[in-house]
Design goal:
Layout lengths: L1 H6 L6 H12 L2 H8 L13 H11 L4 H15 L8 E7 L5 H12 L9 E4 L1 H4 L6 H18 L4 E4 L14 H4 L14 E6 L3 H13 L9 H13 L19 E5 L4 H14 L6 H9 L3 E2 L6 E2 L6 H8 L1
Parallel strand pairs: 1-4, 1-5, 2-3, 3-4
Antiparallel strand pairs: 6-7
Helix pairs in contact: 4-5, 4-6, 10-11, 12-13, 13-14
Family: Belongs to the ClpA/ClpB family. Torsin subfamily.
GO cellular component, one term: endoplasmic reticulum lumen
Keywords: ATP-binding, Endoplasmic reticulum, Glycoprotein, Nucleotide-binding, Signal
């Protein structure tokens, strides 16, 4: 655990980011040379798995399954010098439970430039695929973008946000890139990472968590085996999900379905304290309580889970300071 502590940097910390850059600077010239020697370019790839594990442990509230799955999958993938397929993760859960936060941490701890790295590619349906009538053009562009970037550098991270809003049929063009074939379209792609994020399955996850609470089961006793089938069914039954008619789930191209549980009051409190620490402020009981009092919880009778998770914590803190 001491090693993890040394590797852990506060998320958003300027000093942490400067430290990451300075650590990599000495090796940059050699890495740049390696980049010019072939398609197995790893020039911006600087995995810090102890740092990632420490950050998840300190700052990701209430997500024992997500932490375990993400860390296990990444360790196996990063340590394999010749993976047989890309790493493909699908993150599912209610809004504000940490899906986007985890994807940001992956970029931060795997690539020197984090989300600003030229090897990290973030797609949003609202920004990049806003018009369903242009689906054929989007397919061509997306295939070309993925293929071109993997040709330039096999160590690339592709993030697909709001899969619930992706144009139907678009993700079909990714299917050849996600399997275990040796090459696709002349491109080696087996060292790439694909992350898909959606709210689909969130209601089903919430129901399992609620039933566990009503049965007086400890939250940490909830198993992946309870959640994975209901999430998969929710995705397959949703014609508006990006995986619909893509073959990605049917052909078992996902390495892990990662569930994010709904957050309870003490998890939101944890987020408030983290946010205050990031702002360099001492914990103030009146601010913490004001944020909790302004947060909506459900179901109506139990008032157990936060309706927005930790998504609005930062803005609420600013209001009450």
């Amino acid at each position: 655990m001491a090693a993890a502590t040394r590797g852990c940097r506060p998320w958003g910390s300027l000093l942490g980011l400067l430290g990451l850059v300075s650590t990599a600077a000495a090796a940059w010239d050699l890495a740049s040379l390696r980049c010019n020697l072939g398609a197995f370019c790893e020039c911006d790839f600087r995995p810090d798995l102890p740092g990632l594990e420490c950050d998840l442990a300190q700052h990701l509230a209430g997500q024992h399954l997500a932490k375990a799955l993400v860390v296990k999958a990444l360790k196996a993938f990063v340590r394999d010098p010749a993976p047989t397929k890309p790493l493909v993760l699908s993150l599912h859960g209610w809004t504000g439970t940490g899906k986007s936060y985890v994807s940001s941490l992956l970029a931060h701890y795997l690539f020197q430039g984090g989300l600003r790295s030229p090897r990290v590619h973030h797609f949003s349906p609202v920004l990049h695929f806003p018009h369903p009538s242009h689906i054929e053009r989007y397919k061509k562009d997306l295939k070309s973008w993925v293929q071109g970037n993997l040709t330039a550098c096999g160590r690339s991270l592709f993030l697909f946000d709001e899969m619930d809003k992706m144009p139907p049929g678009l993700m079909e063009v990714l299917r050849p890139f996600l399997g275990s074939s040796w090459v696709v379209y002349g491109t080696n792609y087996r060292k790439a990472i694909f992350i898909f994020i959606s709210n689909t399955g969130g209601e089903q996850i919430n129901q399992v968590a609620l039933e566990a609470w009503r049965s007086r089961r400890d939250r940490e006793e909830i198993l992946l085996q309870e959640l994975e089938p209901v999430i998969s069914r929710a995705v397959l039954d949703n014609p508006h999900h990006g995986f619909s008619n893509s073959g990605i789930m049917e052909e078992r191209l996902l390495d892990a379905v990662v569930p994010f549980l709904p957050l309870q009051r003490h998890h939101v409190r944890h987020c408030v304290l983290n946010e205050l620490a990031q702002l360099g402020l001492e914990p103030r009981d009146e601010v913490v309580q004001a944020v909790l009092d302004s947060t909506t919880f459900f179901p109506e009778d139990e008032q157990l889970f936060s309706s927005n998770g930790c998504k609005t914590v930062a803005s609420r803190i600013a209001f009450f300071l």
